[in-house]
Amino acid sequence: QEVHRRAGAAHLRLLGRLAVISSSSRASSHGFLGCLSDKRIPVFTQGSDSFMPRLNAYVRNPRFLENTTVRPLYLVMPTNAGHVQDAVRCGRRHNMSIRVRSGGHDYEGLSYRSVNASDFAVLDLSELRTVLVDSQTSTAWVESGATLGELYYAIGNVSDVLGFPGGVCPTVGVGGHFSGGGFGTLMRKHGLAVDNVVDAELVVANGTVLNRTTMGEDVFWAIRGGGGSFGVVLKWQVGLVTIPATVSVFKEAVSGSEGAVDKVTRWQKVAPALPGELYLRVRVQEKKADFRASFLGGCDDLRRVMNRSLGLNGADCKEMTWVESVAYIWLGSNATREDLLSRNTSKSESPNSFKATTDYVRQAIPRDAWAEIFGKLV
Ligand SMILES: Cc1cc2nc3c(=O)[nH]c(=O)nc-3n(C[C@H](O)[C@H](O)[C@H](O)COP(=O)(O)OP(=O)(O)OC[C@H]3O[C@@H](n4cnc5c(N)ncnc54)[C@H](O)[C@@H]3O)c2cc1C
After folding, report:
1. Domain FAD-binding PCMH-type spans what residues (predicted)?
2. What pLDDT was estimated at residue 24?
3. Res 3 pLDDT > 80
4. Which range among 124-133, 183-192, 232-241, 355-364 shows the weakest confidence by mean pLDDT?
5. 318 CA to centre of ligand 1 in angstroms
6. What average pLDDT does the structure give for the chain?
7. Atom 19 in ligand 1: which residue has the minimum CA distance?
8. Given 23, 71, 146, 154, which is the most exposed site by the fewest CB atoms within 10 A?
9. Would you say the CB of residue 179 lies under 6 angstroms from ligand 1?
10. Parallel, antiparallel, or unpaired for β 120-124 and 97-101?
């Protein structure tokens, strides 16, 4: 095990070079461009008419659509694994820093902008989006440029009783999501997306491709948390989880006069003890508590649990397949499973631009504090 650990540490040193590609020596942008063109890798320069539309296509934080951000010199759009390997080699040879972008949902735009370096290129993986689901082994290989919606759709096309525990927003890219966690409706029973990754193919600084065996367990651990730092993950193999054929969902908005403060206060106490099959989230905004649930089972059972724990009646509870429930939770009650394939964020019921952070409270927020919070909401 010690030998294995040391091998892993050596790998980390090698891989670390990708992230710090020389900032001291000046990048040769012409050399980089020439290298890409020798290898016939699709690339857009700032002067090209397609540059801004393609760059902005995966800028999910609208603040960074503005002119205030440092833009990449080049947008490199590989269409196969060899392109990614060669782009990394070209970057290294010509001292061009590379940002890796999959779905572009990074809140700080780390995949496509820079605050100080003027010479950098974006390696955009959005054309690498193949998903192969194997229902025999309950696994799937998914390329980093696929969205979560494309992954869920592909699983739903093959089976109604398989699912994957990732995030709720279908336009999030697999590449960044699996590089840093991934929580969603199945997390209480099946954990995070990264807990269910079983293998990956990683392009490292010298352009070679490593899999789980050749990269070693330390690196395999590191890439599921250190997105953008250790190399470019081309694709991921994930284990799928078993889902009942019937999943139920419901939404219920409770206003202040209907007891929202009491219900949210109580939700904090009962939610941790609810069955693992139940995901119940509450969004507090516009003086309402908006409860949304997804349950691995039928409506009768869901209503019983909701009524007993929170006094919610679940009147509009609906039964459907898991993949349909995924569309319902983020895109709303009229969404179809095909909507999961849309890369257009405007379909979402959630606001188009927001920034979120997650905190873990160890003590419930007292009722008085909730009353004050509701008083301040508009
Ligand atoms: C609207 C919205 C909804 C969200 N919902 C959820 C949710 O329900 N659950 C949840 O857990 N999170 C959620 N997130 C957060 C999201 O999972 C992370 O921001 C994630 O990193 C985005 O991945 P991406 O590929 O879209 O982003 P990108 O901006 O492309 O990448 C994010 C980071 O990962 C690196 N990276 C990307 N691809 C690769 C790759 N192939 N190899 C190596 N590094 C790579 C990038 O360089 C960057 O540092 C949400 C974010 C938004 C904006």
Report:
1. 68-243
2. 39
3. no
4. 355-364
5. 30
6. 89
7. 106
8. 23
9. yes
10. parallel
How far apart are the CA of 181 and the centre of ligand 1, in A?
9
Q: What share of the chain is helix, strand, coil (3-state, %, to 5)?
A: 40, 20, 40
- Please give the Cα distance from 183 to 368 (Å, whole number): 30
Dist. CA 313 → ligand 1 center (Å): 36
Instruction: Give CA–CA dist 128/237, Å, rounded.
Output: 15
Closest ligand 1 atom to 230 CA: 43
Whole-angstrom Cα distance, residue 269 to residue 16?
Answer: 44
Q: What is the pLDDT of residues 110-130, one digit of tens each?
A: 999 987 767 899 999 999 999
The Cα–Cα gap between 288 and 211 comes to: 48
Please give the pLDDT value at position 67.
63
Domain extents for the chain? 2-124, 131-242, 247-320+348-376
**What fold is seen in the domain 247-320+348-376?**
Vanillyl-alcohol Oxidase; Chain A, domain 3 (3.40.462)
Assigned CATH topology for domain 131-242: 3.30.465
60 pLDDT tier (thresholds 50, 70, 90)? confident
Question: Counting atoms of ligand 1 from 1, which one is nearest the CA of 202?
Answer: 42
- Stronger pLDDT, 180 or 296, i.e. the higher one: 296
Instruction: Write the CATH number of the domain with boundaries 2-124.
Output: 3.30.43.10
Q: Is 146 in the pocket of ligand 1 (CB under 6 A)?
A: no
What is the whole-number distance in angstroms between the Cα of residue 76 and the centre of ligand 1? Answer: 19
Assess whether the C-beta atom of 233 lies below 6 angstroms from ligand 1.
yes
Q: Whose CA is nearest to atom 21 of ligand 1?
A: 176
For residues 110 and 47, give the distance between their C-alpha atoms in angstroms, rounded to a whole number.
23
| Candidate from 21, 75, 111 with most ligand 1 atoms within 8 A of CB, to mutate | 111
